[in-house]
UniProtKB/TrEMBL annotation:
It comes from the Bacteria. The lineage of its organism: Bacteria, Bacillati, Bacillota, Negativicutes, Acetonemataceae. Residues 8-321 form the D-isomer specific 2-hydroxyacid dehydrogenase catalytic domain. One of its GO terms (cellular component) is cytosol. One of its GO terms (molecular function) is glyoxylate reductase (NADPH) activity. The keyword Oxidoreductase applies. SUPFAM superfamilies: Formate/glycerate dehydrogenase catalytic domain-like, NAD(P)-binding Rossmann-fold domains. It comes from Anaerosporomusa subterranea. Residues 113-289 form the D-isomer specific 2-hydroxyacid dehydrogenase NAD-binding domain. Keywords: Oxidoreductase. InterPro entries: D-isomer_2-hydroxyacid_DH, D-isomer_2_OHA_DH_cat_dom, D-isomer_DH_CS, D-isomer_DH_NAD-bd, NAD(P)-bd_dom_sf. Belongs to the D-isomer specific 2-hydroxyacid dehydrogenase family. This is D-glycerate dehydrogenase.
Length: 333
């Protein structure tokens, strides 16, 4: 039997995940339902064997140094890991894991929720009614845009982009996609057609972004991209905020360069560009794409299983930096 690990959890998670972790490890959890300051994080990670962290924690080399050389794994409670300096972790021999797959459906579903909400002006209509403005059915009241039979543009066709596109079948949509290379599996599953980014932006009625945040995807959608879009286009972003240039988006929304936008993520969360809040043609959600009870529980269970695997000397099932193990192997040889 392996020795019980000492694990720090940076914020309370669904109970089944905590229960599983406590069965095998000594666990301390941040008791406050808020993000730790960097200083608090540096203190709390000290001496741990593993840390279960969140996308709101900045995990940089200073954190790895503070944790100490005995620390073997940071299990990130998200599929995206742009909050973690993976290169620094690998240099120090620290494993990083994430939580792919279990949040794919929930995130794709929320992208559809946003698409419908913007196209059919759901939030505006609800507010209109609650404000007591509803005087009866009107031929010109709150007209939106059709969805069935329209063209969907998907940028990034990995797990979530692929799942999102498959769900378009019932709406008989034509699918265009862009990725770093053509994706035959995506084409087979969705009937999607590979086009360059410019063609996609010019042609699609709905553009949904599903890329990771990388240096190459920061402001992937900015002033020039909005200029290419149709005035009737709707942009959906459930990936990461900095993928869309928020100031350029505000300009496009205010000048009706595009019809609307649905956003789950923002450039400087939790801050939101103030002028965006004034845009009635935008639906804005507080980063809740994976926020279902089942999904958040499963994300917790995956994060914990990564910790337990590492504790037993096995390869964590969703290890991000496999190079760390190769480096250890070559050091042994
Ligand atoms: N809003 C949320 O709560 C939430 C939830 C889950 C995931 N996400 C975000 O969604 C992202 C995607 O998740 P996934 O599981 O589908 O990842 P994935 O790795 O399976 O897919 C990403 C796809 O983007 C493509 N890509 C990379 N750079 C590109 C570029 N420059 N242009 C076009 N395509 C590019 C990749 O080739 C890949 O096909 C995550 O990295 C995460 O940041 C957000």
């Amino acid at each position: 039997m392996s020795k019980r690990w000492n694990v720090y959890v940076t914020r309370m998670l669904p109970q089944p995940a905590i229960d599983l972790l406590k069965e095998y490890c000594d666990v301390e959890i941040n008791p406050d339902d808020q993000v730790l300051s960097h200083e608090e994080l540096l203190t709390k990670v000290k001496g741990r064997d593993a840390v279960l962290c969140l996308l709101t924690d900045t995990i940089d080399d200073e954190v790895f140094a503070a944790a100490g050389s005995q620390c073997k794994l940071f299990a990130n409670y998200a599929v995206g890991f742009n909050n973690v300096d993976v290169e620094a972790a690998t240099k120090r021999g620290v494993m990083i894991s994430n939580t792919p797959d279990v949040l794919t459906d929930a995130t794709a579903d929320l992208a559809w929720t946003l698409l419908f909400s913007v196209a059919r002006r759901v939030v505006e209509s609800d507010k209109y009614l609650r404000d007591g403005k509803f005087q009866g059915w009107g031929p010109m009241l709150l007209l939106g845009r059709d969805i069935t039979g329209k063209t969907l543009g998907v940028i990034g066709t990995g797990r979530i982009g692929g799942n999102f596109a498959k769900k378009a079948k019932g709406f008989e949509m034509k699918i265009l996609y862009n990725d770093v290379t053509p994706n035959p599996q995506f084409e087979a599953e969705t009937g999607g057609v590979y086009v360059d980014k410019e063609t996609l932006l010019k042609t699609a009625d709905f553009i949904s972004v599903h890329v990771p945040l990388l240096p190459s995807t920061r402001h992937l959608i900015s002033t020039n991209e909005f200029k290419l879009m149709k005035p009737t286009a709707i942009l959906i972003n459930t990936s990461r905020g900095p993928v869309v240039d928020e100031k350029a988006l505000v300009y496009a929304l205010q000048t009706n360069e595009i019809w609307g936008a649905g956003l789950d993520v923002f450039e400087n969360e939790p801050a939101v560009e103030p002028r965006l809040l004034e845009c009635e043609n935008a639906v804005l959600l507080p980063h809740v794409a994976s926020a279902t009870i089942d999904t958040r529980t499963n994300m917790g269970l995956i994060a914990v299983r990564n910790i337990l695997a590492a504790m037993q000397g096995a390869v964590p099932p969703t290890l991000v930096n496999i190079e760390v193990l190769r480096a250890k192997e070559s050091n042994k040889a």
